[in-house]
């Protein structure tokens, strides 16, 4: 199996080119590929499939040329990956499958626009954050309250007062499964300057990662909404978010989030670092 390895702010992925959609990708195979000791190692898999070959009616009818089939490292499916889509776009350009510029990529959360040159940062249109009300998570016996935000995938963005480096994320944060029936990505963020946040994240299906693009937009949205905003002010369209740019520092680097009054955008580095073949007979 041919693969490429890449990352966006150290949120790393095994990219599997599968234009005709012929690859059998079971949860077990995904977990073995992502295993950091017995496999290649990654936070997730990006399967690169022509949208017409996705075998999913909405994706085939999306009008996009390519479908990002994202899987978490435990083999579960994620609807959207903000760092993944930027790395996916960089791969398509490097592989000669798309030209630098602006075009859409199909995901399970809908088509998302990307914008990139031949080198440098990659931007992705991330859709309007949907504010769903409050929620809670527990870490090492301490309860944190936050905002439930959908970026196509579920997030709980919790503001904290102390530096995020001090949090013990060696175990999954506890949460109420009735509030998050699909599971949740839990972010902890602290304001460190004007429109400047630091964040750590424990991802559904992947554990603590060094960055999460959808999580970055979720914490910027939570900060933009502010502590006391009533739920009614920020509905499912997220268009009421104040326009502005946010800098979010994550353990793996720095990302920029922009709200333009209609939607959100995520910008940052996306790099390819290796390519190869799995050893014959391994999988
Ligand atoms: N790291 C990603 C998010 C990946 C999916 C997430 N773990 C989920 O299950 O929703 C990002 O950069 O957005």
Could you outline the blueprint of secondary structure elements for this entry?
Layout: E1 2-8, E2 11-17, H1 27-34, E3 44-50, H2 57-60, E4 66-72, H3 82-94, E5 101-107, E6 110-116, E7 122-125, E8 130-139, E9 142-150, E10 154-159, E11 174-175, E12 185-193, E13 196-203, E14 207-209, H4 213-225, E15 244-250, E16 253-259, E17 264-268, E18 271-277
Parallel strand pairs: 2-3, 4-5, 10-12, 13-15
Antiparallel strand pairs: 1-2, 1-18, 3-4, 5-6, 6-7, 7-17, 8-9, 8-11, 9-10, 12-13, 13-14, 15-16, 16-17
Bound molecules: ligand LBFN2T5F.
The ligand N[C@@H](CCC[C@H](N)C(=O)O)C(=O)O binds at residues 11, 44, 72, 78, 81-84, 153, 185, 203-206, 209, 212-214.
Overview of the structural elements:
With 283 residues, the protein is mainly beta. The protein has 2 domains: 134 residues, Diaminopimelate Epimerase, Chain A, domain 1 (Roll), CATH 3.10.310.10; 133 residues, Diaminopimelate Epimerase, Chain A, domain 1. The protein is built from 4 helices and 18 strands. It has an 18-stranded mixed sheet that branches. A hairpin with a 4-residue loop joins strand 16 and strand 17. The radius of gyration is 18 Å and the shape is globular. The N and C termini lie close together (9 Å). The relative contact order is 0.17. The ligand N[C@@H](CCC[C@H](N)C(=O)O)C(=O)O binds next to helix 3 and helix 4. Its main location: cytoplasm. Its EC number is 5.1.1.7. Belongs to the diaminopimelate epimerase family. Keywords: Amino-acid biosynthesis, Cytoplasm, Isomerase, Lysine biosynthesis. It is found in: Cytoplasm.
């Amino acid at each position: 199996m041919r693969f490429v390895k890449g990352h966006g702010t150290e949120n790393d992925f095994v990219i599997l080119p599968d234009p005709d959609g012929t690859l059998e990708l079971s949860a077990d195979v995904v977990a073995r590929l992502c295993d950091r000791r017995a496999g290649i190692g990654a936070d997730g898999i990006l399967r690169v499939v022509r949208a017409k070959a996705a075998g999913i009616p909405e994706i085939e009818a999306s009008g996009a040329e390519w479908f990002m089939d994202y899987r978490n490292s435990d083999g579960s499916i994620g609807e959207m990956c903000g760092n993944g889509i930027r790395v996916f776009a960089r791969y398509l350009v490097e592989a000669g499958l798309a030209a630098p510029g602006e075009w859409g990529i199909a995901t399970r959360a809908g088509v998302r626009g990307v914008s990139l040159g031949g080198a440098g940062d990659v931007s992705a249109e991330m859709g309007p954050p949907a504010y769903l009300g409050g929620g809670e998570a527990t870490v090492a016996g301490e309860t944190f309250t936050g905002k439930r935000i959908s970026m196509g995938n579920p997030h709980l963005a919790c503001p904290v007062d102390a530096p995020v480096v001090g949090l013990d994320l060696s175990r999954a944060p506890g949460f109420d499964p009735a509030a998050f029936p699909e599971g949740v990505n839990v972010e902890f963020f602290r304001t460190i300057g004007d429109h400047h946040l630091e964040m750590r994240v424990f991802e559904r299906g992947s554990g603590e990662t060094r960055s999460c693009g959808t999580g970055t937009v979720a914490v910027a949205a939570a900060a933009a909404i502010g502590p006391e905003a009533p739920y009614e002010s920020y509905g499912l369209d997220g268009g009421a978010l104040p326009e502005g740019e946010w800098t979010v520092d994550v353990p793996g680097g720095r990302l920029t989030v922009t709200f333009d009054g209609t939607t959100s955008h995520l910008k940052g580095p996306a790099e390819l670092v290796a390519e190869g073949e799995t050893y014959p007979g391994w999988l």
